[in-house]
C-alpha cells in the first residue's frame, strides 16, 4: 500500500543507490514540487545537493527573502541569486506576452547555467517533475517549453546535458503534498497557491517596469494577506492581482486623479485546466479594495474578475 512514509523510505534508498557521491544541482522555485524534491534529495545525499534560487524580480512582495530563509532553515545547501536587473533589462519595452515569456525563459537559462557551472564536478540535474507533467508533455507552458524553444535556436545549455533525476515523477499533486507534510516541510510552502514561472510579468499587461512590479507587489500583498486573515486563502485554488495599463479618472480629497486599475482574480479549480471564479464575500472584497486604493500610490480603481475558464484563462498575460 502506498503511504507517504513508505514512499519516502524507498525513494531515499533508491536515490542513495543511484547517486552515490555524485553532485546534483536543482533550481528551486518556492513552489511545492521543487521544495519536496529538494528535501527528499537532501535527505538522500546531504550537501551534495546544490540548490539554486533565482530572484527574477517578478516574485511576490518579500517572497525571495522569506522563501530563501525557510529553505536555509530546512538545512538545504542553497544559493540565492539576485538577477532582478537582468530580467528587467531583458523585458524593457516588450509588451507581447509570448515575447515576454521567451525573454524570461532565456535569461533564466543563462542565469541558471552560470550558477550550475559554479558547482564543481556536478553530474545530475534534479527536477520537481510530477506525474501529470510527464503525461501532459502536451502542455505548452512552463520552463520545459521555454527550454525547448531555446534549444531549437541556440544549442543546449550545459546544465541540460546533465543526467536528470526526478524523484516525484510517479506522484500526483496531493501525494506530493502528503509526502511534503511527512517530511516536515512548512505548511505555508505546501499550501501555496500555484504561481506561474514568469511570475508577475504575465500579471502586468503590456510592458513591465520595476515601478509597475512594485505597485503590483503592494496590491497583491494586500489582497493575499486579506485572503489569509479572512480565512479563505486555503479555500481558493489560486488568487492574484493583475495590473492593467488602463487609466481612469478618480477623485482623492479635492483632487482629480488619473491612475491605473488593479484587477483581483480568484479561482476554484482542480488542475488549472478549467476554473470557476470564486464567490468571495462582498465585505472582504470591499476591505481589500479600500486598502489597495488608500495605500497603493498609482491605483485609484479595483475591479474583480468574474470570468470562468473556458472561455477566459486564469492568467491575463
Ligand atoms: P491559464 O492562464 O492558462 O493558466 O488558465 C493555467 C495555470 O497554469 C499556470 N501557468 C503557469 N505555470 N509556468 C508555470 O509554472 C508558466 O509559464 C505558467 N503559465 C500559466 C497559471 O498560473 C494557472 O495556474
UniProtKB/TrEMBL annotation:
The keyword rRNA-binding does not apply. Its EC number is 6.3.5.2. GO terms for molecular function: GMP synthase (glutamine-hydrolyzing) activity. ATP binds at residues 29-35. It catalyses: XMP + L-glutamine + ATP + H2O = GMP + L-glutamate + AMP + diphosphate + 2 H(+). Coiled coil: none annotated. Pathway: Purine metabolism; GMP biosynthesis; GMP from XMP (L-Gln route): step 1/1. Residues 2-192 form the GMPS ATP-PPase domain. Keywords: ATP-binding, Glutamine amidotransferase, GMP biosynthesis, Ligase, Nucleotide-binding, Purine biosynthesis. The keyword ATP-binding applies. Catalyzes the synthesis of GMP from XMP. Homodimer. This is GMP synthase [glutamine-hydrolyzing]. It comes from Mucilaginibacter lutimaris. The gene is guaA. The chain holds residues 193 to 509 of 509 of the full protein.
Amino acid at each position: 500500500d502506498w503511504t507517504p512514509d513508505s514512499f519516502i523510505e524507498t525513494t531515499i534508498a533508491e536515490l542513495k543507490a543511484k547517486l552515490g557521491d555524485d553532485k546534483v544541482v536543482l533550481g528551486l522555485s518556492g513552489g511545492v514540487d521543487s521544495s519536496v524534491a529538494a528535501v527528499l534529495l537532501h535527505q538522500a545525499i546531504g550537501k551534495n545537493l546544490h540548490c539554486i534560487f533565482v530572484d527574477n524580480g517578478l516574485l511576490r512582495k518579500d517572497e525571495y527573502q522569506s522563501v530563501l530563509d525557510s529553505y536555509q532553515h530546512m538545512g538545504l545547501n542553497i544559493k540565492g541569486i539576485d538577477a532582478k536587473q537582468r530580467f528587467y533589462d531583458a523585458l524593457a519595452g516588450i509588451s507581447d506576452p509570448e515575447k515576454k515569456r521567451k525573454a524570461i525563459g532565456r535569461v533564466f537559462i543563462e542565469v541558471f547555467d552560470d550558477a550550475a557551472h559554479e558547482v564543481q564536478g556536478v553530474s545530475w540535474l534534479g527536477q520537481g517533475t510530477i506525474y501529470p507533467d510527464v503525461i501532459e508533455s502536451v502542455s505548452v507552458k512552463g520552463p520545459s517549453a521555454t527550454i525547448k524553444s531555446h534549444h531549437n535556436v541556440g544549442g543546449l545549455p550545459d546544465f541540460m546535458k546533465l543526467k536528470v533525476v526526478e524523484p516525484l515523477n510517479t506522484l500526483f499533486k496531493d501525494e506530493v503534498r502528503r509526502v511534503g507534510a511527512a517530511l516536515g516541510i512548512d505548511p505555508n510552502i505546501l499550501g501555496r497557491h500555484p504561481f506561474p514561472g514568469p511570475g508577475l510579468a504575465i500579471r502586468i499587461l503590456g510592458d513591465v517596469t520595476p515601478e509597475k512590479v512594485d505597485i503590483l507587489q503592494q496590491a497583491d500583498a494586500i489582497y493575499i494577506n486579506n485572503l489569509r486573515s479572512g480565512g479563505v486563502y486555503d479555500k481558493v485554488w489560486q488568487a492574484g492581482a493583475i495590473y492593467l495599463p488602463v487609466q481612469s479618472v478618480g477623485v482623492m480629497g479635492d483632487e482629480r486623479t488619473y491612475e491605473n486599475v488593479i484587477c483581483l482574480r480568484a479561482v476554484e479549480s482542480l488542475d488549472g485546466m478549467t476554473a470557476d471564479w470564486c464567490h468571495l464575500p462582498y465585505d472582504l472584497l470591499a476591505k481589500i479594495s479600500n486598502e489597495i486604493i488608500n495605500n497603493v500610490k498609482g491605483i485609484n480603481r479595483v475591479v474583480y474578475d468574474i470570468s470562468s475558464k473556458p472561455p477566459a484563462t486564469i492568467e491575463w498575460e
